[in-house]
Structure of DUF4349 domain-containing protein:
Amino acid sequence: MKNIILLLSGLILINCNKSGVAKQEAKADLMEVITEDKSYAPTSPPNSISEKLAPDENGSNKEPSTAKKTDTISRKIIKNGDMKIQVGDIKKAQGQVNDILKKNNAYIQKEDFQNTDMDDNLNLIIRVPHKNFDALISSFSDGVGSVLSKNISSNDVTEEYTDVSIKLANKKIYLEKYRDMLKSAATTKDMLEIQEKIRELEDEIDVAEGRLRFIDDRVNYSTLSLNLYKEKVRSSATSKIGFGSRFVDSVTEGWNSFVSFMLGIVSLWPFFLIIPFIIFFWRKWKSGKKNKN
């Protein structure tokens, strides 16, 4: 009997120890959860919508939940350039340019041609993948014509891109918070204020996303302004503009100048009508002055 009592007492002590350990483990887990939750909980209850959630206008990481590590952004380099090349034949040079564009996966964004008595000018705005920009410049420099001018520039916009990306991410987080708050808005005033904040954030997000798309486009595709220039030789052997043509042009220009002069005089007819009245009053005044003398 004594042995049975001792055995039961031992089992009871073992169970008590196990339950105590379990309670301590559960308490430790609970404290860990509470500690984690406290890092995201406000220190005091907000009194207004602005105090509930007041995002910084500059998108700074004041809200703990927004303090997340952003992905590393690769360097953003925008390359631009302009070239002027003198060629012997515009059409032939244009064909060479088109072949070079195909090899480098480039395309013409804008084309403008000007034909004057002095020269021919073909202006092209070319967009080319960033990785093919240098190869494109080299191809134009070597095989199209004589390079008269070349200007290449690189602009590092990594800092701007990173700054806009961080602000955009924060604004999206705040936008979701405001939408959640809108579902539980207690008064009409709170609802209207939250809706206005949501509208402002949506506009700011659209602007930021548009800026990022623009930067990505300029980074992914470089821009080159290419001018193909051909100077025209003005001589009687290679041009129709000889002495006879110039003499006829001079006679025509003289006649046109005479016609313009006569038309200018005719346009002054109101003043010619006034002149007789001026002469009449001047003579009358002069005769009256003589009579007084």
Observations:
- The helical segments are 2-38, 49-52, 90-103, 133-143, 158-183, 188-220, 243-266, 269-292.
